[in-house]
Model the fold of this input.
Amino acid sequence: MLADGHAAAREATIDRWNASDRPRVVITGGGTAGHTNPGIAVAEALVRRGLDASAIRFVGAERGSESELVPAAGFQIEVLPGRGIKRTLSPAGVRDNVGAVIGLVKAGVRARSLLAAWQPEVVVCLGGYAAVAASLAARAAGIPVVVTEQNARSSATNRLVSRFAAVCALPFPDTDLPNGVVTGNPTRHTVIDAVRSADREGARAERGWPTDAVVLAVWGGSLGARSINTAVADTIETLASRTAGRPVIVHHVIGRRDWDGDPGRRIGDLDWRRQEYEHDMASVLVGADLAVTRGGASTVAELALAGLPAVIVPLPIAPRDHQRANAEELSAVGAAVILDDAEVGDRLLDLVAPLLADDADRARRAAAAASVARPDAASAVADLVLDRAEPSGPTDQEAS
Done:
């Protein structure tokens, strides 16, 4: 496997090619932002290596987040028809799956046509429906495939593609894919730069968070997390009484699904601030003292980058319980506490109140979170991609 510092030691990777010979790369997959943004992060790292953005093409799904996120990031994308297979034996599910299989065949034909036209040297598989068609098309054409997994427990697509992939980039050492290299989960440079450049005092001042206040940040994705939202609402007055005597701010991002327009209220020394969506996550990560959130791959990576301790409530319906596995990477070093979704209403208060009161405990957990951060993950994956794009294959250092 590559050493953690491998990417930093090879900043001039792209210099192996003349400008006219630099490789073409296809990045395929997506579905959710948690899959798509790591792919964009890899593309951005390749551009920083010297590739022109026009040499990087995305292949995604019509229904996926990539259809909007990729163009917004400045890259080209082609979307494939169809949808994923449903894991159900109900009559409606069977009918949908028949259509999904037909759609997959059509997507495969389209993917082979795109690869024949573009002639990429390497294909990067992110997971998700569209990645199946493009990765199988790459195999048929003899194009090397690099899998990059975002979660501690791999997706069905990536487990399939890993059987013939040249290498698999892993977010954690225990991620269950063969021929793996631990790179970390790629994070977009805009997030990394924002976290690195933001100062705690400045972030808090910009938001109107007093320097002597303890800030609890609560969020659950763009739609929100209903169980977390309900638990906070049900216990907020008790939390205010248990933290009385010290200013506390609860920065609560509700999400679109449950947003009711209520901006929150002040309860004694506690200021409960509610909002629908958060546009500046970097300042929240840097300025907050404690988080309550889900265990998505990008969230876990960003908590580590910011050194923010957390109570993580894994989404119970996540495939293969991958959010719990993600959270365990922070829990194992003492950076996070894992709380079952079914128990969040009963136990959230008893977990959060002591953490808000204990500055030393939070400081220890913050240092533990920062100790497992991998800010060079996108760069490390870019190295793997460029190695497979080269006819001579991986470097001697990696092969060893």
Remarks:
- Residues 240 and 267 are 6 Å apart (CA to CA).
- Residues 8-186+375-399 form a domain with the Rossmann fold fold (CATH 3.40.50.2000).
- The chain has 15 helices and 14 strands.
